[in-house]
From TrEMBL:
It is a multi-pass membrane protein. The chain crosses the membrane at residues 39-58, 64-83, 129-150, 156-175. It comes from the Eukaryota. InterPro entries: TVP23-like. This is Golgi apparatus membrane protein TVP23 homolog. Its main location: membrane. Residues 1-30 are annotated as: Disordered. Signal peptide: none annotated. The keyword Calcium does not apply. Belongs to the TVP23 family. It comes from Drosophila rhopaloa. GO terms for cellular component: Golgi membrane. One of its GO terms (biological process) is protein secretion.
Amino acid sequence: MASATVRNVPLLDDDTIPFGEEDEMRDPSRAGQKYTHPYVTFFHLFFRGAAIVIYMFCGWFSESFITSFVFVVLFLSADFWTVKNISGRLLVGLRWWNYVDDDGVSHWVFESKNSESYQSRINKHEQRVFWLGLILCPVFWSLFFLLALFGLKFKWLLLVMIAIALNAANLYGYIKCNYGASKDLNSAATDFVKTQLFKNAMDIMTKPSAAQPPTNVRPTGVV
C-alpha cells in the first residue's frame, strides 16, 4: 500500500543538510552574482543534455547498440539522481521522496518551502533554468519516441521509454511539490507551462535595448 502526502515531515537521519537550510551553506562570495549555484545549475542540464546528444549521435562513434544503450542509461541515471536529490532542493526549494514506515506502508512525500523569506532567496535565473530543463527534455524524448515508433526501431524504442519514464518521474514529482495535491496535475502542468512562456516573453520584451550611438555629433576638426 502506498500513500502520498504534501507536507513537511521529520527529516531522514542521513540528511546532511536539513531541507530548507541549504542557503546557510552558500558561499557568501557569490552573493549578487547571476548564478549562486553555478555548478549545480550546470550539472542539472549537463547529464540530461549529454544523454540526448549521445542518443542522437552515437552512431557516429560506435555501431554497437549495447555500448550506446549503456552510456545513455548511465547519463539518464546520473541525471535522475542529481535532479531528484540536489538541484531541486537547491535551485527551487522543492523535494520529493519515499519512505516505508514500521507497518510496511510506502509513503510518497512532496515538500515545498513556500515561506516568503525562503522564496525571496531563490535565484530567478536558476529557477528558470531548472524548470525549462525539466520540461523541455521530456519533449525531446517524446519526439524521439515517435520517430522510433514510426521508424520501427523497436530496440531504440525501449531506450526512449526508459528516458521518458525517468524524466517524467522528476517532472511529475516537482509539479506536485510546486502545486500540491489539491490541484489537478493536468491543469497545473498546463498553467505552469503557460506561465513560464509568458514570463520568458515578458523578459524579452522588457529587456533594455543597447544604447544607440549618437547621430548628431559634429566632427571636432576640419581638414
